[in-house]
Amino acid sequence: RIVYARSPRTLPVVLSADEVVHFLEAVPSLKTRTALTTAYAAGLRASETVGLKVGDIDSGRGVILVRHGKGGKDRTVMLSAQLLRILRVYWRLAKPQGWLFPGRDPNRPIDVQVLYSACRSARAAAG
Question: Helix (H, G, I), strand (E, B), or coil: what is residue 61?
């Protein structure tokens, strides 16, 4: 049996607040920008973000219900006042029903690849 040496894991690059704002401003679509903002502000994975439904946002308790997260487990995460304001503006403009971030077919959420692609494009545009 051959044992391979593990390559050391590198720590992720942490962006400053200004860099995060610059990055998010480089995303032209309101829906995609709001989805990425939600993922960043609430610490969600892309798959968890696209799986959010309007009813998962509990503004009264200040939490977001994440269904079927890593390992298939449900959990709640904090909903900051700033993120709540952003989501309310998005909701007023986009009026999502069911899925918080619906795809072309409103009965299905946006594809996780949409977020990945938006990240790549914003990274290139933001420098």
Answer: coil
* pLDDT over threshold 90, residue 69: no
**Can you give the pLDDT at residue 9?**
84
Closest residue by Cα to residue 78 from 38, 122, 21, 50? 38
**Above 90 in pLDDT, residue 48?**
yes
Residue 116 CB neighbour total at 10 angstroms:
11
DSSP codes joined into one string, 3-70: -PPPPPPPPPPPPPHHHHHHHHHT---HHHHHHHHHHHHHT--HHHHHT-BGGGEETTTTEEEE-S-G
Distances (CA, A) of 56 to 28, 76, 97: 25, 9, 12
Query: What does pTM read for this prediction?
Result: 0.87
- Nearest-angstrom CA–CA distance, 99 and 106: 7
Lookup: tokens for 49: 């973000």
Question: Going from the N-terminus, what domains does the chain have, and what CATH number goes with each?
Answer: 17-126 (1.10.443.10)
